[in-house]
Amino acid sequence: MPTSIECRRTSHPNIVVENLAASITFLEEVYGGSFMSDLPGPNWHACLIEVGGMIFELFEPKNFMLHGRIGPHYLGIEFEADMDQARAATAEHEVRILRDIVEAFHTDPATSQGIAFEYYGGTFYGPEARHIHVNHSRAPDYWAAQGVGFAGYRGYTHAVVDIEAASAFLQSYVSARPIYAAERPGLGARAIGLQIADSRCELVTPVADGLLRREMMTTGHGIRSTVFGVRDLAAARAWLEGKGLRVIAGTAPGAIMADPRDHLGFRFEFEQA
Fold first, then answer.
1. What is the pLDDT of residues 212-221, one digit of tens each?
2. What digits encode the pLDDT tens for the residues 156-165?
């Protein structure tokens, strides 16, 4: 049996954005985003910013033209993990490493269900996080007091072509545990829920003509959204609309999200806690 990674916690989703400065401003103004670290580099300008108790790494490529076909998107997600175990499992599952900086590495999305999985042996959370230069992670009370009324990170949705194969791969590779199966008629899709560390990963696949199938004809498979709990869903909707954002249905029944056309091109979803 191949090695399976026992992820400790979600570190952060990675998002490719077109304009880093505008994205930071948007997340600060709409969600009370807390800027954590500036990460300039030769190929991109990146940063860490916390929203709703979850850190995000934003990447602005030096030239966005190569990303223009699919626009802003989730590149992948980082988990805290034992690095020896992560390297062994990655090799045994024949997952290609696309970028390796020794203390962390990214997998090739083409060999890992459309996601660049990233693993890191340390943490970006707490007052002792050594790579944080501005603000350390905030307490839940801070996020609860923000306008949308955060009640914690819940997980992410992951669009896939073959849902059974994706579920089996994630169970074997990152010790994912099945927790539910459901229909998502609003998307023309079906879903399988998996628990990966503290993330609820909802796999979704098209089963009929609908929004998800049309999206995937352009973007292929990969992370579709980040999901947060909120204290009062109606109040969260009112807050988003008050910020001039159109609010549409989320993936699960009752969930909502700001229209990605108003939201930097990527999706945050909100569900009643």
1. 999 999 889 9
2. 999 999 999 9
pLDDT for 143: 98
Nearest to 263 by CA among 15, 12, 11: 15
By CB neighbour count within 10 A (0-12 exposed, 13-18 middle, 19+ buried), where does 31 fall?
Answer: buried
CA 106 to chain centroid, in Å, comes to: 14
Cβ atoms of 224 and 203 within 8 Å: the answer is no
101 contacts: CB under 8 Å, gap ≥ 6? none
In angstroms, the CA 106 to CA 195 distance is 21
Structural domains of the chain sorted by starting position, each given as residue range(s) with its CATH number in brackets: 9-143 (3.10.180.10), 151-272 (3.10.180.10)
Indicate the DSSP class of residue 137: P
Q: What is the largest CA-CA distance in the chain?
A: 53
Instruction: Classify residue 248 as exposed, middle or buried by CB count within 10 Å of its CB (0-12, 13-18, 19+).
Output: middle
Q: Report d(CA 201, CA 61) in Å as an integer.
A: 27
- What integer is the mean pLDDT of 27-56? 97
Task: Say which DSSP state 195 is in.
Answer: E
